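Morning. Coffee machine broken again, so started the prediction first thing and wrote up yesterday's gels while waiting. Chain of 238 residues, entered below exactly as on the submission form.
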Amino acid sequence: MRFIATFDAASFLDTVVSLFAAFVLGTLIGAERQYRQRTAGLRTNVLVAVGSAAFADLAARLGGPTDAMRVVANVVTGVGFLGAGVIMKEGLNVRGLNTAATLWCSAAVGSCAGTDMLGEAVLITFIIIAGNTILRPVANFIDRIPLDERHSEVSYEVRLTVDTPALTALRDKLIEALEAAKYPVGDVEEEPGPDYTAVLVAKLVSTAVNAAELDAVTDRLATLPGVRHATWESSTEE
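Came back before lunch.
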């Protein structure tokens, strides 16, 4: 039998250690995911880690380090497609990104174990678990901080509801008032309004504004003849 002729006890023992290490480390990662009831839990992370280790170990034994690197590159691509399967879009919300990233990292742990880099595999496992546990309260704390629009990617618009006959003159007044307040205008659009009115929408170039300054500008614009209403609003950029 070819198995008897080619069997190498030392190489087999090396494979056993690599796969067992991948199994244990994948279990640690998966246990945390299972505890939090994620889509990809204990078994999925273990299988990804062990599978990655098996492919890397097989390539290293049959072809050497160069072939192992090529296989690891393909493992990264393959696990990327697997991770895409746990990402779900619900309306404007996307769920499963962290779970997909954890699967990707489990593949890295398995690849390190399969190429006999056990120290690196343990280190990556520690970092993954720390990222999913220690950083969780930090992320929650940051999410509770009120949004400071001056330091976020926000677009601003000044909206003027005007009588249609005064549209052209008030368009110029709007641009002049904003530029005098050091808020250059990128574009001014016209929208139809109710009862023979039109709405001028000035899009600001600035991505950081002072609310009190814009309030003062809109208050002044509201007093101009032909202006029925003046306001400004912000929206988060995609």
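The first strand starts at residue 88 and ends at 90. Going to sketch it on the whiteboard this afternoon.
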